[in-house]
Amino acid sequence: MAYLIKSLKNKKGLRRYIGPKRAVLFILLVIFVVWAWYNYRSGGLSPSIIEQYRTQHPIAAVLLFTLVYAVSVVAALPSLPLNLAAGFFWGGFVGGIYSTIGVTFGGWISFFVARRLMGQPMGERFQNRWAGRVQEEFERNGWKFVAFARVNPIIPTGPLNYLLGLTSLSNLGFLWPTFVFLLPPSIAVAYIGDTLQTFTANQDDVSEIIRGILIVSAAVTFLALVRLFTKISKR
């Protein structure tokens, strides 16, 4: 709070958060998100559009898939159908790799935009004791936090990318654990799409499998948070 008040009292601090360039970037982001959600609702970003190119234009289909996946991640759209579609179109392993490339690219754009908009406010020192200790833990093991979040499907990828952009995490520290640790779950979901031959997330078989994965993921996340806060409280 003291840092925010100090920032608001000097021009440089004020421009850091609401300067004209950031205002334009924010408006463009809002327009982009609205456009993406509109197209998602109308079917313009459906995996079925990729299916039309897959036979006659295989390379273009991969590039289009990567672009659509990146757009979905930046706009925080549901991306499960795309991950399933990757397995349906290209098989579990290759489809999982394509999905990981798309989500990593889109994630980095979100990370970059958040940093350009707000800087790194979560990289500043917090006065609160608990917040300060969590921050210290993150600075020591930042990649482990990213890795755990990426391999854990209960944690939403879209909002997390923007949140990480506000931390002191470097571009490399964001990119490599994002790709490496999103690869296993992306391949797993792609194999579901390949095995069941579907990219419809609402199908009963798919829903049952995903529900089971999320329940296990939630339990693991809870235990990890308990362990983290127990470790911090002992300092």
Write the layout of secondary structure elements.
Elements: H1 2-9, H2 11-18, H3 20-42, H4 48-54, H5 58-74, H6 80-90, H7 92-118, H8 129-140, H9 142-151, H10 157-165, H11 171-196, H12 204-233
Helix pairs in contact: 1-2, 2-3, 3-7, 4-5, 5-7, 6-7, 6-11, 7-10, 7-11, 8-9, 9-11
Organism: Cohaesibacter celericrescens
Protein name: TVP38/TMEM64 family membrane protein
Transmembrane segments: 20-38, 59-77, 89-114, 174-193, 209-229
Features:
about 240 residues, mainly alpha, single chain
Structure explained in plain terms:
The protein is mainly alpha-helical. The protein has 12 helices and no strands. It is a multi-pass membrane protein.
Structural class per helix/strand content?
mainly alpha
Percent of residues in β-strands: under 5%
**Count of the domains:** 1
Would you identify the regions where 5 or more consecutive residues have pLDDT less than 50?
A: 7-11
The CA-CA distance between the termini, in Å, is 25 Å
Brief sketch in words of this structure:
The protein is mostly helical. It is 80% helix and 0% strand.
